[in-house]
Amino acid sequence: MDATALEQSGPAGSAASITLEHIGKTYPDGTVAVGDFGLEVRAGELTVLIGPSGCGKSTILRMINRLIEPTKGRILIDGENILERNAVELRRHIGYVIQNVGLFPHQNIRTNIGTVPRMLGWDKKRINERADELLELVGLDPARYAKRYPHELSGGQRQRVGVARALAADPRVLLMDEPFSAVDPIARGRLQEEFLKLQATVRKTIVLVTHDIDEAVRLGDRIAVLAEGGRLLQYAPPAELLSRPDSTAVGDFVGADRGIRRLAVTPLRPALKPLDRGAPVDGRPSVAADGTLYDALAAMLAANATEVVAVEDGQPVGSLSRAAVFDVPQQEAEAKV
Ligand SMILES: Nc1ncnc2c1ncn2[C@@H]1O[C@H](COP(=O)(O)OP(=O)(O)OP(=O)(O)O)[C@@H](O)[C@H]1O
What are the ABC transporter domain coordinates in residue numbering (predicted)? Predict the structure, then answer.
């Protein structure tokens, strides 16, 4: 087999970039699911596709692993035109996670995770070791879960197995279609949190489809907002999208409560009023100095306090008032106009 860009997986930093050039999908009945779509997905980043139902998000995602064949355009992964490759073979090098996972019910968890490595001809010992390593990585004890069957797991645990299975052959690209939407909101929050930690370790290039703006803001390095027919309205990091929606359509989509969401993606550190190391905290609530304005506000509200102290390595490093929390995004928004 030739060593194409997609197969050169390995140590951290080996994620691939994805370039979508004027791709489109028109069905034989004339439906234009995606008219003309372009996007540059940076290596090692998590890009979210979001937009109303039927706007073509899943179609775009499934064109990247060619479960749907584009009717126009080019798709490059690290510069290689993947439309010229064998589609079945291609899919073995692109992880894919869907809602409700689609685990094989009659195979145990370890066997499910080993699906792609088996197709790639790995030996049994290596497959089992890899499955157990991934179970650890997604927070499931292999001794307890490896031999279980999918119906013996909770929905959230199955979803983690789905992520582990998609990562099994160490793909450089991971596609995720509404991966967390089938689980209840509390489990979803925990899964998203764990998934962010996992991504900090594996640093894959990820394209994730969701219709949930909170999920997009929480997970995305960049968010692409789409309208019907796969029309790209805006492509920007979450903080920029929330503070500077460049059309009313995007503004409406990100929602009226975007001020609060913006707090959740704005670091608190630049807003801190410096404190001498070792200065007394005086019963004020504390927050981690690498947290967000939202964390600071939550700490103040919980303690019914008007000021919070930011702490780093156990030492107070600055303070922040309630008024300052609301000043910062305001100043930022004004500075950007
Ligand atoms: N086989 C098909 N023939 C004709 N039209 C289709 C076919 N499959 C999908 N479509 C249409 O393509 C459009 C895009 O569908 P797609 O599933 O990509 O939307 P989506 O944004 O992922 O929606 P949702 O959020 O509801 O999952 C829809 O209007 C859909 O009806």
Answer: 18-254
Region(s) of the chain under CATH 3.10.580.10: 266-336
- Position of tokens 């030996």? 123
Can you give the pTM of this predicted structure? 0.78
Distance of CA 245 to the CA centre of its chain: 20
Is the pLDDT at 333 greater than 70? The verdict is: no
Tokens describing residue 208: 């994730």
Terminal C-alpha separation, the chain: 53
| Residue of the CA atom closest to atom 1 of ligand 1 | 27
HSE (CB half, 13 Å, CA atoms) of 328? 24
Query: Into which CATH architecture does domain 266-336 fall?
Result: Roll (3.10)
The CA-based angle 21-226-239, given to 5 degrees, is: 100
| Of 258 and 308, more confident | 308
> Inter-axis angle of helices 155-167 and 124-137, to 10 degrees?
130
Q: State the distance from the centre of ligand 1 to the C-alpha of 28, rounded, in angstroms.
A: 13
pLDDT in tens, 21-74: 999 999 999 999 999 999 999 999 999 999 988 999 999 999 999 999 999 999
In this prediction, residue 337 carries a pLDDT of 35
308 and 286 Cβ atoms separated by less than 8 Å: yes
Q: Where in the chain is the domain with CATH 3.40.50.300?
A: 5-256
At the topology level, CATH places domain 5-256 in Rossmann fold (3.40.50)
CA dihedral 169, 62, 98, 188 (to 10 degrees): 110
